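Input/output pair, single chain:
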Amino acid sequence: MRMKIGFEIHEQLATKRKLCCDCPTDYREAPPNTNVCPICTAMPGAKPMPPNVKAVDAVIELALMLGCEVVLDQPIYVQRKHYDYPDLPAGYQHSSTPIGINGELVGVRIREVHLEEDPGAYDPVAGTVDFNRCGVPLVEIVTEPDMHSPEEARRFLRQLMLVLDYSGRVRPEPGTLRADTNISLEGGTRVEIKNINSTKGAYRAVKFEVMRQKALIERGAVIPYETRAYLESQMITVPMRMKVVDFHVIPDPDIFPIVIDRARVETIRKRMVEVPHQREQRLVKQYQISQAVAGVIVSERELADLFEAVAKEVDPKLVATWFQTNLKKVLNYMKLRAADVRFTPEQFGGLLRMVKDKRITPEQGELVLRELVKQPAELEKLLRRIGIPITVELREKIKLEDRLKVVPLKHGELEAAVVKTLEENPKAVEDYLKGRKEALNFLAGKVMKLTRGRADPREILKFLSAKLKGKKKRRVSRRTKRSK
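Output:
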């Protein structure tokens, strides 16, 4: 059964003041209803200030990144969109006419991009309203109904979130995204779903609503033209209200229209960052790496920046391999983003050169990388810190022929070190047993440190895997006995 899915995505812009007043937008830590003024609470006689210029520029930049045509040399009105709800003190919401039109992202057409303001936060259970958020600038992105499955919808939202993240023009805090989705099935009626605040939530909401509508159509029931709310805790949608046909939208007579000229657009275009999907294609061509690897690298703007800085000094294919596997694995295990790393491209490049020149093994290189992520330092200090016996001076002294000599352990020492490591790191053991494979490398590093670098990393991994496999079997056996 053919379906059509479209989105209206709202995201807070990263500005310091609200759209039409000077109240700060950092409202999260403020006591309720203190981050307000007569303008954003619509006190009698209060007039709005001209729209925040930085907010307008941010929307222009986002429209360009989404391939839109910016509306030039004609009035863009800030309108009053009227609806009666407790979170709107004025009884209307400011929302501009389109600033960007006719865009496209991963095959989905962008109908328009415009400027809007956030309402307050209404708690229907407690019956309270906090107006601190009221007036915070938003970008609203409206798509055409070009998605035909929950998977397509999820793919589009992920790519859109990446574009917004790359721009640096939206607030990075979680919970600022709100998406409304419109869904219709062949033979049915369009239904709007609200209260979606994540990509995962959007996927689940769309999936449930498609199943619900399909069941109604198959029974011959009529699907009402309504707005529904997504309940994330139950992963279902419930009736909210009948669909409003007309919001009664008029230009705000107290706000002059916005007019954008070509010079302003070109200035913004020159300073904006490269769009992630375009950067992915460039990395493939410029560095001769695979599409899959390039996709991992551009998943974070800072990761892609770091890759290009290191690739200037070291073989790009080697750098790409380490970024896709080793670096991403370490960051994921430590629950870090590329923006959190403090080591320099030169330090990472030096580590890769050591691996390439066979001064250390790849396994030892990964152990050094973890230390580099945790506490950046000179590479030779890191080698000494984790017990790998190699420096340039030592290598010259004992005449190693460009390869690390591992001093063998006495019989039983490695097994004892593995056992001790497992006993001292129960959380990492538990993580591994739950399926987090990165924990194995963490444990290997602890064994390497305990043995002062004298153990072969391959032997460490072999012993650890055997011990952990035994623990896993015993756990399964105990569960089986309990179930009986």
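Residues 3-268 form one domain. DSSP finds 16 helices and 14 strands in the chain.
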